[in-house]
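Many groups now describe folds with learned vocabularies. In that spirit, our science desk offers one protein's residues alongside their backbone shape tokens.
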Amino acid sequence: MSNVYMSGSKTRYATRKSKTYQEGRSCDEKGCEVTLSKYNERNQCFVHYKFRAPRVRGHIDARTKK
């Protein structure tokens, strides 16, 4: 048999488990019955979550802000 396979090593350290939340939760928005993932920490689905757009045009210095 030829040497077709690559050799490798196992992870030598313990990997951290993903944080999970309660299963079977649904979106908080009225009338929305989307079941949220157990890995989603928010209470709204993607459609109803209010994303905040980052500032695109430079930095606001808090010391000079009135």
